[in-house]
Amino acid sequence: MKKVVALIVVLVVAWLGATFYVGMRAETLVRDEVAGLEVIPGQSDIVFDVLRYDRGLFRSEAVTCLIAQGELASNPNMAMLSGQICSLSTIHHGPFAWTDEGLFVGIAASEEVLDLSELPPEMAAMVNEIFQGKPPVTGYSRYGFDGSLTMKVAVSPVNLEAPMGKVVLEELQLDVLRPTADNYPVNTYLSLQGLDVSSPKMGFAVDSLTGAVDIVAMLGGELPLADINLAGKQLRWSQGEQPMLAFDLTLQGTSKDHGDTLSGDSRLWLENISGPMVPLPMDSAYLGMDYAGLDRQALVKVHALNREMDEIQTRALMGALTGNGEQDMEQQMARIQTLLAEMTQVAAEQLLHPGDSELSLQMLVDHQGERQLTVDSKARYLGLDGNNLPADELMALSEAQIQQMLDVQVRVDMHESLVPASYVARLTALAEQGVVERQGERWSSVISANGGALSLNGQLVSAEELQERMKAVSGPAGTPEAAEAETALDDPLAYQVD
Length: 498
Description:
Elements: H1 2-35, E1 46-55, E2 59-68, H2 76-81, E3 86-93, E4 96-99, E5 102-105, E6 108-115, H3 121-130, E7 137-143, E8 149-155, E9 158-162, E10 165-178, E11 186-198, E12 202-219, E13 223-239, E14 242-257, E15 261-274, E16 284-295, H4 296-322, H5 329-351, E17 358-367, E18 370-381, H6 391-395, H7 399-404, E19 406-415, H8 421-432, E20 437-439, E21 442-450, E22 453-456, E23 459-461, H9 463-472, H10 480-489
Helix pairs in contact: 4-5
């Protein structure tokens, strides 16, 4: 019996010791996570900070707030908000943590609630009305023994109507999984349901938008490799009470690392398209892009230069808020010009690999089950004599020399119903010149340029000959009435709402 009691005592002491140790480890994790958060990229005057951490044996309480410091703290409005926007966290210590969702085995499990109660009374009252007395944002985090991290952030439902408009939100939730102790991959799942934002003049609504955005790796600490898969149902725009545009969408994209180069693709499908803003007769459309052979280090460099330009613009904005924006404006503008010059140089001399860098685009438009428009284009970069040129030499090249650097093919196929009446005569003239071809109800044209050699609908032509053919039909396309109708159709997005 004594041995059993002794064993129980040992187990209890071991468990308490493990809980105490895990509690210390949990505090370190929480503080490290907060310290790693960046509110505004490149801006250190506004940060998250753990203002209080009360560690107990089985659980801890933490208060993390948004803090304005440095020059930003001198701004009265920012100083008033500093320390008033906080997250209240309850951290349950492992190795066995009892949470509202049951037993969790790991280092720690925490629940977070966004607390805005310390805001000025009028702001706090407005937040309370918008979110119907519920916390604006809630969430939880789970820290595993293997270094994994699971997070969920949810925005409370909103149903607010006022003379100025309305805001309705049924659900907005973000789930994040970091499966290992490494920073990447990071898998993110978004769920947006029932969003409707409108004013007397315009409105935007989404029935649902769901999907995943996974950051597979971060190259050079700068450039993310991502896999994207999003699906949206009934995205709608309106003016007043008049519906203007509605569609469903599917968006997919990937990027891949091949060592020295990167490749990727993106695919956008639009379905159930309707509304007066639709520029062509269509109920579905597709846009696809593929690229390959982009220099890995050059893209990382371009991304870093672009990030620095964003940081400069952010500092200028923060300077305007604090009234100190005039002090270093000249230095900021000079630095932006330097960054733009560096970006141009990298793009010209390193980004593309002669013979390997490729880009292809495809656009498809359908209406009532029939293909209305097909545009296929492919381009391969050849360089000049197989080499890249310095940026200044590239800018000095003639049009003929630039054509020699590219292998390009563009194919257009269009149903006759897309052609305005005022353009039929011109297309007929182009067909007589061999620029376009007509087959039944369709118009088509294929043009290719490979290192300066030009092909039009399968026939070799010179650039001068093509220009002469185009000039032959470049005159007015009919009567003044037809020209007026043509002008009215030049902007297919033009519309009028009574």
